[in-house]
Design goal:
single chain; mainly alpha; Four Helix Bundle (Hemerythrin (Met), subunit A)
Length: 106
């Protein structure tokens, strides 16, 4: 979960950088970013399939929406979707911490 959260934070920072680019630079950056975010989406979906937490499903939906916004050139909206995905993953992290405490593993 922390890894996914870190990857999403990186995605938000990359989007802020992409906004500043123009023309071919922005087009190329979009292609690379799309591949990166698709990789993150794969990890989110794997976590959902293994853990089954609704938070990961919400995260997947937000990341998918961010990809759509990037394709539309709506980078600020994409950043908002990524931010909401970060919040969803953070909620799942709180659940994990509670499970560890409940089982005296922390």
């Amino acid at each position: 979960m922390e890894r996914i959260k870190s990857e999403l934070i990186i995605a938000a920072k990359l989007l802020e950088f992409i906004i500043e680019l123009k023309g071919d630079e922005q087009s190329g950056a979009n292609k690379l970013f799309t591949q990166y975010l698709n990789g993150v989406l794969g990890e989110v979906n794997l976590a959902y399939n293994v853990i089954g937490r609704q938070d990961f499903l919400q995260t997947s939906e937000k990341v998918t929406a961010a990809l759509e916004k990037v394709h539309q050139g709506r980078f600020e909206d994409a950043i908002r979707q990524v931010s909401e995905a970060i919040s969803a993953v953070a909620s799942s992290g709180q659940w994990s911490m509670q499970v560890l405490k409940d089982n005296n593993l922390l």
